[in-house]
Amino acid sequence: MIRGEPMSSRDALNFYFESTHTSALLVHAFVLDAANVPGAVRTQADANAYAESVMHLDPIFTKRLHRVPLDLDFPYWISDSDVDLAHHVFVHTQAPGDTTAVRSTIVDISRTFFDFTARPAWELHFLVDLHGIDGIPDGGSLFVIKFHHSAIDGVGASDLVSRMLAVEPAQPSPPRPQVPVPGALAALRGLPRGFGTLAKTFVTAARMKRSARGSTGSLALSADTHRKGPATRFNVDLEPDMVWDVAWFDLDRVREVKTAIDGGTVNDVMLTAISLAYSSYLAEHWETPAASLRMSMPMNTRTMKDATTANQLAILVMSMHTDIADPVARLQAIHDSALLEKKYIADATLGKNRQPPNPLNSLPSVLLPPIGKTLRGPSKKATEAFVNTMISNVTYGRGPLQLNGAPVVGCLGVLPTVRGVHLAHSVRSVGSSISISVASNRAVMPDIEHYMDLLQAAMSSLS
Description:
The protein has ten helices and 18 strands. Strands 5-6-7-2-16-15 form a six-stranded mixed sheet, sandwiched between helices. Strands 10-18-17-14-11-12 form a six-stranded mixed sheet, sandwiched between helices. The chain has a four-stranded antiparallel sheet with strand order 3-4-1-8, with no helix packed on it.
């Protein structure tokens, strides 16, 4: 009998709802000062040897997806000891004078989806002997790690990567419980229970909404009472055409900027820089909306509750305060909104304020494939949007990280855009370096290099 690790309904959404328009890939990348390091990865043999040395750290490297017949149950992760590194480990070289090598390779990696039917969902890419690229020491390398959101979330990935790049040998993840994988008949017998759970979810949500209407008049899903904001050029339906770039900042300088307000954080500063750059870009195109735009970002809930899902996070949605012109006043407003929203989500997670259950997290497995195939994008002339941009923020701290002796001197990421939100920002920090990586669509941002300049200008306006 096959045994495996069951995928939760929440994690399964990332598998079934992925499409060319909405990616569920996780991409983390690290700048290595490798030019004068004898043991640095330079060849395919070096890369394979490194992969073999870290695969014991987590089951993600040796588990592949197993789908139950007719999707009568959620997929399972089953052990696959026969991992062919030729499908997982890649070395890329830079053509002479090609300063776009990193951007083009990152886009290719981020637009190439996993073949779940054949192998585990992970890849390691090494861009070696790089020259003339901003943010990368001459002769340095870029190490890119790619996972899938159905197997791990951003915080889980950052923990694993930190162990992969630790100076001292790291401990492997604890083994995860394995259960028998059901066949078609057993899964079919369990299907009524899934539909029963979905029915209870709808009944509970309806009862809570009726109760809220009878008391306060609404049942807030967020501390931000504005459920939608104005749509921008980034909130219409577009065919995929990804562009990507990265802006680098000095983390010590950012820490100085945050002292402009009481209790300010590095995250507040980075969110404000993004808000200011977004405003400036729209203003240059005479597209500034009167009302404030809105942003979303994941909030880690691991310390708040026990969970068996790979994705242990809540999505925080808040105002970007783009209607406030003064940069420091906008920083203060974003700080206040972030505090309010984080407290609201923490209280909801801990049960201090009640929220209706989300039916998406209770859908039976058999419904997910057809729903995923029929999901539609927003109007090509959308006037409202729930979110105008998505932001993720992962820090790797001050501690030293290295790969085969080559120190990590910077990191960056890719937060893929999704249908209807064609501007995404990934904030990454390590040591004294912090970056904002930006993904968009060429149709609405043909000049992404200019947007990087606007991010730098935004940071300068806060200094």
